[in-house]
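I had to read the description of the data format several times before I understood it. For illustration, here is how one protein appears when written out as sequence plus structure tokens:
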Amino acid sequence: MKIGINLVGVSYNNAIEGGRLRDYENSIQNFYKNVVNPLRENGHDIKFYLFSYSNEKQDKIIEDYSPAIKHTFVEPGYNKLGGGDKVSNGMKIMTVSYLNSLQQLKDEDLDLVISTRYDINFFKNPFEEYNYDFTKCSFLWREPEFMDLPIVNDTFIVFPHSMLESFYNAVIEMETNPPHGVNSGMHNLYLPMVNQVGEDDVVWMDEEFKSAVNNNLYKLERTE
């Protein structure tokens, strides 16, 4: 398969002017070891699509994620803000960044999209831990909050490229009309995606409720 890895968000921030300390180099080695290389060894063609905020390491970032087919680095001031902070159009930075990143995937010759973040340090291969069906939009698990919605993990989302427009529209719905009025980062994306493609084609891989920041699959490498 032709797989596009969509990396979104803060790739590097030294935190001198604010924001969390983050450095993609704390995660990239295990990302290759547990995600990228096993997929390549199974015969898949992997390409990277990068969307982040301007920083002093961006040239190295483009070099390290190879091949980086498209890469965009925007407003450096976003590094010191939280993903839930809003920009001038009233949308969360996280949402605006995600929508822009998805635009880079439009018209690309891809079969599958893996949408994730720079600071995710995998301890294990998620594709060995779980039995993915690449015809569906797959979240890792549900989060232990607003359990009736449900709220889902937003750090590693896998979906067929044919669902790209539906996924884009679901992100807009999540932002502008969040289910039950719950505005929880990107976590309230399950029901909007179900509205787009149907309940049978949106799944979570683990039946247990787990936390995005405390689990045995990965660690988010960020410091307050």
